[in-house]
Write a structure and sequence with these properties.
Elements: H1 2-17, H2 19-35, H3 41-61, E1 73-77, E2 87-91, H4 92-100
Antiparallel strand pairs: 1-2
Length: 101
Amino acid sequence: MKDKEKEKATQKRYIKNNRDKVRKMRRDYNHKYYYLPIPHKKALIRANAGHKLRQEIIKLKKCCEACGSKSSLELHHVEYVNEVEYIQLLCKYCHRAVHQD
């Protein structure tokens, strides 16, 4: 427990002392992974609304629609539209099985 607290304090101190460097690193990372144009339709949908949409669907559906599992949940797009009715919530095993068929 003390090691984690010590590590967090060290991280905070580093960020405080190197604000410009940290901002540049974050800006470079975001530019590289988020702001560049992505030609693939799937990637665009995931990049734009991924996290918030996933959280919303997990709140609504709560478990895998195929087997009822509550762990390792993933989104499966029935159609590539960012609407809840076109997305299934599946565990990673059912999701893999859907794509193998």
